[in-house]
From TrEMBL:
PANTHER family: QUINOLINATE SYNTHASE, CHLOROPLASTIC, QUINOLINATE SYNTHETASE A
Cofactor remark: Binds 1 [4Fe-4S] cluster per subunit.
Classification via HAMAP family: NadA_type2
Binding site for [4Fe-4S] cluster: C108, C194, C287
Cytoplasm keyword on record: yes
Gene name tied to this protein: nadA
Organism lineage: Bacteria, Pseudomonadati, Bacteroidota, Chitinophagia, Chitinophagales
Main function: Catalyzes the condensation of iminoaspartate with dihydroxyacetone phosphate to form quinolinate.
Protein name according to UniProt: Quinolinate synthase
UniProt source species: Chitinophaga niabensis
Amino acid sequence: MIIELAEAKKNLQKKGFLDVEVDVKLDLFAEIDRLKKEKNAIILAHYYQEPDIQDVADYIGDSLGLSQQAAKTDADIIVFAGVHFMAETAKILSPQKKVLLPDLKAGCSLADSAPPELFKKFRDKYPDHIVISYINCSAGIKALSDIICTSSNAEKIIESVPKDQPIIFAPDRNLGSYLIKKTGRDMVLWNGACMVHEIFSLEKITKLKVRHPEAKIIAHPECEANVLAIADFIGSTTGLLKFTQRDDAQEYIVVTETGILHQMQKENPAKTFIPAPPNNACACNDCPHMKLNTLEKLYLCMEYEEPEITMEEGLRIAAKKPIDRMLEISAQAGL
Ligand code: 13P
Ligand code: SF4
């Protein structure tokens, strides 16, 4: 076991997690619960995580809620069941805490679509613009930004900027285009996108709607404009979940990553939720990055306290400023 662990530690960066055999008879739910108490650890999970992970989490939320929790928790260890930029944001906000991510390779195609060196050159072409970046970006991009936003506070963040102040919005062109329409602000957009939200098929969703005429279409603003155009409601993951709780429809076509259906179904047991199909042979749309995390990897990272998120202090301080600004504006707006 000691040799196996030493070998797994050597391969951690390559594999993304400690590849140690877990006894199949182990009750992972009970073990994770024990580790939470023993280590004063909190599990923060995004709605796109697999149902088992959501069920052991202390908090499940969208990107804004998760960063608010990371900033205020008094736990010693934050176990981030989400993707890398989310765990990185938690570390930026709570540097004195140990931040663990079940699989370091849980990245994000949207964050990857904006490499900081290229983005800096792009930004330098617009010296009089301020940069509002969607939280789905690396610490390097955050450090080049003036304010961070999420899909639940983006409108408020944009409205907080004086009307005559030109804006660059990065990295999601779909969310950016949606916000231009919503706010009437003519922003310069970085050309990035999320692979999960871009792949939904308008044709298949339209056919689904014909078969389920009473179903409401609810969509995440990372989707393309043609999909958003047919949506009855558009919002962040928390926004979509809350809508299904207050709305009186009985059926919904859900146009975002399928993980959110777990909470929707739990909160509304009598309602029907249909995952919108992507433009391939699959019937639903999973984020391959989010789904790299498993209950086993969650247990392993808590047991061995690795992989851990670390960051150079200069980068952390530069990346924190625009996140703090976002949290201030969100608090003022009551979000
Ligand atoms: P929200 O949960 O903030 O809506 O973000 C969705 C998303 O794509 C996270 O990766
Ligand atoms: Fe990134 Fe899209 Fe996956 Fe969210 S769903 S983590 S934006 S690739």
